[in-house]
Amino acid sequence: MPSLALRRRRERVLGLALAVQLTVGVVSAVVLRPAPEAPARSSSAPVLAANARNGVSVRTLAVRQLLATRAAAVLHKDKDAFLATVDPGARAFQARQGALFDALGVVPLATWRYDLDPTRERRHTAALDALRGVWWSPNVTLHYALTGFDRSPTVQPQGLTFVERGGRWYLGAEDDFARMGHPTSRDLWDGGPVVLARGASCLVLGHPKNAALVRQLVVECDAAVPRATAVWGRGWGRRVVLLVPDSEKELASIVPDSGDLSQIAALATAELVSPGAGYHPVGDRVLINPSNFRSLGALGRRVVLAHEITHVASRASTGPQVPTWFVEGLADYVGYLGVDLPLSLSAEELRADVRGGKLPTRLPLDGDFDGSRKDLAQTYEMSWLAVVWMAKTYGQSTVLQVYREAGADSRPGALGRAVRHHLHLTVPEVTRAWRAYLVSVLT
Q: For residue 74, what are the domain limits?
């Protein structure tokens, strides 16, 4: 049934209001710079010696070269060179790294490089000293871009441990510090072999188990991109990457701290780079929760994908002062646009509340979008109808002007200023008008 399908869509957008909490702390210091060239193996010793004489740590230079070698091996598909950087005594880890390399083989990579910050490192413990011997765990970030889709490389923190064996440094582990707040970011290829499908506007990556869904999603995504563009405009990349994990558990590993995903069919994510210098999101992805997404009918899939792709389209204009109700309400506005569905189905929960005398007193707060809340459906419906009211009263173009102006203003009160400028109302006046609209359409 369409009503069930639409009720199951409870996506949260972790690259926007919530992303400030989830990602800004780990990527705010990242500086994008050209990838280091892989060193020539025959000349590494003189380079290390020369830099050591200049006060540069031999260990730092060795690990930096190791990372450059790994990056070059990924891009040049040189598995032997890649595995030569891994601790030769760690057989199980070697096998996992080999599987990772194989999975990356079909991924269209334009960029793959690492940045090392030797001034920030993990503290030694007796237990880890006993396990690893001579080891070092500095801050490392991975930068990668997908050919034809990522305008700038995405940034992922790495919780790597390097070990010394016979005077050489190797990668020894990637999960020693996961429980201490320094995990290695996971991506789809960490979960096993990858299959992909390309469309006119979309790249979909999944595992062989979901190959049929991957192919189907290319068609559905290609149809959703024009719907989002018709509202938002052409001023975005109009290129979308979808990831299809095999399970909800794998989805949670790719998007950590995402909360309860049991009612989530899809979600959009991004990371923030150098927010002090401006709002610069990278690594836009739409992730599918396969079991929930499969339960949706054709109409539900259409709404979900248009919703999530609207987040991708509007991401760069969604500054930290845009409230989540506006972010989600706009995405639902696009998702439902052109869908012939009565409010008795599309706003079923909120309609029941209003008819039962529970008219909301305020627009939703960011905390109301917590996935564990029992009234999450009402929160999305309130947000959607706030944008519907604004569009019906002032026009769709005015809605977008308010959104973009609020998004470009990093000062507190940005939404209030944008509303006053374009609607000639205060936020409390908007709230009163929205409440009156709910009464008029839901009772």
A: 30-186
pLDDT in tens, 207-228: 999 999 999 999 999 999 999 9
How many domains are contained in the chain?
2
C-alpha distances (whole Å) from 282 to each of 18, 33, 272, 303 are 15, 15, 6, 24
3-state helix, strand, coil in the chain (%, to 5): 50, 15, 35
- The pair phi, psi for residue 237, each rounded to 5°, is -65, -25
Q: What is the DSSP string of 203-216?
A: EEEE-GGGHHHHHH
Closest CA to 22 of 209, 219, 244, 267: 267
Torsion-angle region of residue 274: left (phi > 0), alpha (psi -120 to 50) or beta? left
Among candidate residues 132, 159, 186, the one where a domain is terminated = 186
Domain membership flag for residue 287: no
- Read out DSSP for 151-187? SS-EEEEE--EEEEETTEEEEEES-TTGGGT-PPPP-
Rounded-to-integer distance, Cα 28 and Cα 414, Å: 22
Boundary of a domain, candidates 141, 167, 186: 186
Residue 51 lies in a domain: yes
For the stretch 243-279, pLDDT in tens is 999 999 999 999 987 788 888 899 999 987 755 556 6
Closest CA to 387 of 408, 406, 367: 406
What DSSP designation does 92 have? Answer: H
